[in-house]
Amino acid sequence: MTFVVAQFWVWLLAALAVGVLTGVFGSQPTEHGKIAGWLRWWGLAFAAGLAVALLHILPGRPAVYLESGLAIFAVFLAGCGLTAVFSRRSLRHHEAWALGLVPAALIWQGANLLALPKLEADLKREVATLIERAGGDPLDFDVAGRDALLPIDVADRVALAKRIEAIPGVRVVAAIDELTGVAGQLREAAAAAEAAKTASSGDKAATAPKAAEPAPRKTTNATQPAPSEPVKDAPSQSAHRADKAQAAAAVLAAVPRTGDLDAAVCQSALSATLAVENIEFRSRKASIRRASANVLDKLAALLQRCPKTKVEVGAHADSIGHDEDNQQLSTRRAQRVVDYLVRMGVERDRLAAVGYGARKPTAAHDSGGENRRIELVVKQRR
User: What residue spans in the chain does CATH classification 3.30.1330.60 cover?
Assistant: First the structure.
């Protein structure tokens, strides 16, 4: 309940003000000595709801709805009571006070509509950070209300659940068969980790012969001089990448540590972050590799410091395969990145997912995968 109060404190103050105003304008004491019927029945409902909350009968969001409703109603009654005390009136048969329940209910609805998503986003960041530090997959969970949802096949689930339960605000850690919705899409085959590793190794082995092609030419004709271009090309590409990474690091070092960023600085910081770390996907799939969670978290943190901007998340593919397949794959990958950023607290209406397929290559020969990339383009909000 303390965490709920901390998240809903603005709405609780509004409910207190409604209670005070209701007590001032709705106080009509009579000669009857019995407590008003509405107050008695609502008192019983309050006690029953409190018991439900304490017993953790309701899961996820419904539990938060109940907790916030109990808190708002309690504060509303406190406002009414304070008015009665200071005006020296009696809490007896004030039937008109029941009218104050209408604005109190509207406050409750608004609180859950606006404050609950932020509450969930805050908990998601905390849980994702904990899981990553524990060596797990930061995509392998979900949050509903104040409940953390962990699939039953997560490694060391019992120990991990105990650590998650210690996070302030987490009510319970619930076991589920599998993730659904956005969380399920982001995970997508995490249970088949061994198969993914095998596929990744196969991809590296498949690309290795291409890099080694110039070597056999030296042995076919001993009198023929070895071509000089490939030898010069490799170190030049390596030096270029090193210079690019060094320049990106310098840009990031110049970004202020605190405060909002304007569109130009935001663009520079996002581009530099992606230049230092790539967002990697599983081969020919839209599934984000778990190693990319770190760079995605950094991008989300930067975007939250650029509240006056909209951002296009553009995904690019290589020219391998059919153009239509590459277009669809890049679109799905862009959407997955948007889903992750939203999960980390970035407003969805600020993000636009665009798949470019292989239409905008940056390298003529994509043996190193330069054309498979994610780009974030900042646009000023109107």
Answer: 244-380
In sequence order, the 6+-apart residues with CB closer than 8 A to the CB of 258 are: none
Tens of pLDDT along 73-93?
888 888 877 877 776 665 555
Read off the pLDDT of residues 210-239 as tens digits, 9 standing for 90 and up: 444 444 444 334 334 444 344 344 445 555
Backbone phi, psi, residue 314, to 5°: -105, 130
Are the beta carbons of 72 and 107 closer than 8 angstroms? yes
Q: Where in the chain is the domain with CATH 3.30.70?
A: 118-181
Tokens of 58: 């309701």
Contacts for 313 with CB less than 8 Å, ≥ 6 apart? 334, 337, 338, 341, 351, 352, 353, 354, 374, 375, 376
> What count of other Cβ atoms lies within 10 Å of the Cβ of residue 149?
20
Q: CB neighbours (10 Å) of residue 200?
A: 14
* The token pair that represents 295 in the structure block: 């760079």
pLDDT digits (tens, 9 = 90+) for 322-350: 888 888 889 989 998 998 898 888 999 99
Query: Tokens 């987490």 map to which residue?
Result: 170
Sign of CA dihedral 104, 108, 111, 113: negative
Give the count of beta carbons closer than 10 Å to the beta carbon of residue 28.
11
Q: What architecture does CATH give domain 244-380?
A: 2-Layer Sandwich (3.30)
pTM over 0.70: no
Contact call for residues 336 and 186 (beta carbons, < 8 A): yes
- pLDDT band of residue 289 (cuts 50, 70, 90) is confident
Please report how the helices 60-86 and 101-133 are oriented relative to each other, as an axis angle in degrees rounded to 10.
130
Residues 333, 313: Cα–Cα separation, whole Å: 9
State in words which class domain 118-181 has: alpha beta
Label the pairing between strands 147-151 and 172-176: parallel
